[in-house]
Q: What sequence folds into this?
């Protein structure tokens, strides 16, 4: 069954707008927080190397806003054919 493309595009647009709003809230929180919101380390390479992900979130926000209205195409033929998962994955055959 093929889904209603305009309705799916509206659902996708709503999800993108919600993620943009969420990212803005995180940036507001991180800029206003008087204490560290993330664990830090003494410089060893770990997921805790940076005090906040503010720079990454700022970049994410810029990219999401720049591409929020991009068309979600082209559709790959391999993803729209019957048994497309089978065509993309190795099943040991």
A:
């Amino acid at each position: 069954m093929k889904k209603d493309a305009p309705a799916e595009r509206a659902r996708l647009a709503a999800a993108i707008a919600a993620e943009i709003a969420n990212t803005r809230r995180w940036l507001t929180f991180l800029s206003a927080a008087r204490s560290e919101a993330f664990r830090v380390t003494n410089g060893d390479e770990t997921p805790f190397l940076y005090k906040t992900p503010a720079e990454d979130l700022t970049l994410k926000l810029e990219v999401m806003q720049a591409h929020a209205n991009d068309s979600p195409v082209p559709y790959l033929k391999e993803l729209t054919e019957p048994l497309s998962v089978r065509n993309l994955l190795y099943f040991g055959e």
Remarks:
- The two ends are 29 Å apart (CA to CA).
- The CA atoms of residues 9 and 27 lie 27 Å apart.
- The first helix runs from residue 5 to 32.
- The chain has one domain: 5-88.
